Amino acid sequence: MDIVIVGGGPAGIAAACESRQIWPHKSVVIIEAEEAIGCCRPLLPQFLAGQVGEEKVFLNQIGQGDKQLNIITGKRVISLDRYKRILYLQDGTEIQYDRLLLAPGGKPIIPHLEGRHNGQGIFAVRNFPEVKKAKAWIKKDHQIFILGGGLVGVKTAVYLRTAGWQISLVEKEGHLLPEVLSSKAAAFLADYLHKLGIRIFLGQTISQIEEVGGQIKKVKLKGQWYACDALLLALGARPHLSFLPESELLTEGKLLVSPTLQTKDPRIFAAGDAATIKHPNGRELNLWTWPQAVRQGRLAAANFYRANPLNLKIFTKANSLNLAGLALHIIEGDKDYDKELIYASSRENCFRQIFLKAQKLVGGVFMGNISQTGLVHYLVINEKENEWTNLIRPSYQFMYPILSRDSRQYKRAYFLRGGQIKPCSSTKNCV
C-alpha cells in the first residue's frame, strides 16, 4: 500500500480526502477499530438526548466508487514494525505502507470506583457504541450523574437536562471547565446551568457506588449518598498509543511530532488527539479540537511526498458550543498571559474575557454575545495589536439577512453599530 491511515476520525478522513486529491496515483487505506468511520463526537450528547438521529452522527461516507481508497473497519492495530514498514492487526492481517499517518484518537479515562462489580448503568461519553448503549439504558425517570465538568460533561448535562432528565454534574476542581475557563468565566457558566435546573458538585468526586442486582443505584460524594440510575463518565481521554511501545516512536510516553507533523521516522506522521506537537518555541502542545484535527490531517497529507514539508501555522484551539441558547466560544492560545479584560452583564446574559501578553492578544472567552470572535481569533493567530477596550465591549451585533418584500431576494447582512443600523460595505466585511 502507498498511504495507510490509522484512525477514521476527523484527522484520518481529512487526510484520506486530501491525499486522493493531491496524490491521485497513490492508494490510500484507512484502518478504524470501530465498526464505522466518521463519527462526529461533538454530536454524541445531542444523540444521547434524542435530539439528533444516528444518521446525523456520522459524516458522509467517503470512498464510494474509488478503487484507490480502501476502508477497513472493526479491526484494531496491535503493533507496528517501522523498520519493515508493517502494521499488524488483531486478526493477524499484515499491512505494509510507504507513508503512514497515526491518527487513532484517544481512549476514555475510566476511574476506579469502589463498589463497582458488574457496573450496569455506567457509560463513557466518548465513542458511538458506548453512547448508543447509554441511550438505550436511560429512562425518563432516571436520576443521571455526570462525572467530569469539562466541555463534554457540561454539554452532555445541558442537552439531557433540556430533554427532561434530572442531572447532577460532578467536577473535582473548584470550577467548571478548569482546563479552558477562568474561575470568573466558570462562575457565569455555573449560574446559567443552575437556572436550567442542573445540580452541580464542585471540588468533589464520586468515591463509591452502590449496586443492586448488578445495576448502579447510588453514588457517594463527601460521605453522602445520592440516588443514581445512570452514571456518565466525561473525564476526557488519553492518546491511544498502546500499539506503539515497541516502535521506538514514543518519547516519555508521548508521540511527539514536529510542526510538519512528522515523527522520529520521516515516513510516519501523526495528527489529532494522539499527537503531541513540538512548537517552534519549545512548548509541547495537544491541540485536541475538531478544527485542529481536520487541519492537521490535511497538512499531513500535503506533506506525505513533499521534498520540503510545510509547517503547521495555527497552534490555537477554538471551541464553539450552543448550550440551550447560551452561545459559548473559547479561543485558547498562550496561557501565560499578563493581563485580562472582562465585560460581564447579567442583564444582557453576556460574559466576555480576553487575555493579553505584552499587549498582544493571546486568547479569549465569549458567552452570550459572541460577536467579533472571528476577529479575535485572527488577532491571536497573527499576534496583532489592537485597541482592546473597543473589542471587549460587544458593540457589534450580527443581524441576519433581511428578505426584500419586493424582489424576494436577500439583502446584504447588517450590523448594529452604536444603536444605528448600517449596511455592510462589502460581502467580505460581513463574514
Explain what you see.
The protein is built from nine helices and 29 strands. By secondary structure, the chain is of the alpha/beta class. It has three domains: 3-107 and 238-303, FAD/NAD(P)-binding domain, CATH 3.50.50; 122-235, FAD/NAD(P)-binding domain (3-Layer(bba) Sandwich); 317-394, Enolase-like, domain 1 (2-Layer Sandwich). The protein has a five-stranded parallel sheet with strand order 3-2-1-7-19, covered by helices on one side. The protein has a five-stranded parallel sheet with strand order 9-16-10-11-12, covered by helices on one side. A five-stranded antiparallel sheet has the order 22-23-26-25-24. A hairpin with a 2-residue loop joins strand 22 and strand 23. Helix 1 (10-22) packs parallel to helix 7 (290-303). The longest helix has 14 residues, at 183-196.
